[in-house]
Task: structure prediction
Amino acid sequence: MMLAGKVLIITGASSGIGAAAAELFAAEGAALVLGARRAELLAALADRLADSGAKVAVQAGDVRDESYAADLVDLAERRFGGLDGAFNNAGIVGELGPLENMAAENWHEVLATNLTSAFFAAKAQIPASRRRGGGSIVFTSSFVGSTIGLPGMAAYAASKAGLVGLTQVLAAEHGPDDIRVNALLPGGTRTEMAGNDPQVLQRIEHMHALKRMATPDEIARAAFFLLSDQSSFVTGSALIADGGNSICKT
Ligand code: NAD
Result:
């Protein structure tokens, strides 16, 4: 129960890495505020967790809205008395393809969902963490844009690389408040985002030293480390949990 007594927000909790994190963090004793767009999936997950004794609150919404970030923090404080951390994990890939063919709408949508959302999240979560006397904030970045350039993913890579810069500045600004801020860089992970085309999945698997993709739970465990007190001296980092993707040239 390494998260006992902690109140944590998870966004993108309706599927994939976020849903796996909800299961794991609840099992470790955290009280959870879960967010994503798909209300029915969130409610089903919350019911399942509550049945096993977890404290869970949900609020569906869109991370592109500044007010949604504030609503999630407000819910954590009203329902559970404060906020100890957040796994800011919602994200999209957007349309794939060469930059010269990319519509500006796609660029703006990917940046708004993956990067501007982190700005909104931090604006709401930093003051709440300060009120609590400290905290841990995690952003889900990616191997794409930080350790490798994958053709066709310009907007996604730019948004995910931006999260690493944001992480470094926030960690430096709020270290004196005992607020830790880290980015998590997963490798290829078997979720809805990765799709189910066998050829594509095989190509992604081969990019990793371990010659496989992660399960969502393997990435959730890296987030768990960053949100627990086990990482009490880790801040400003870009934690790579990528199955050796970044060092593999074979
Ligand atoms: P996923 O598609 O299963 O989960 C994405 C989640 O984000 C969903 O719950 C979705 O509803 C939510 N979401 C998307 N747009 C939203 C919005 N505007 N408002 C609120 N919620 C929104 O995929 P996943 O792989 O679990 O992705 C989780 C994170 O991990 C993402 O940030 C993704 O970029 C990152 N990531 C994934 C991989 C991978 O290979 N799957 C690799 C590296 C990083």
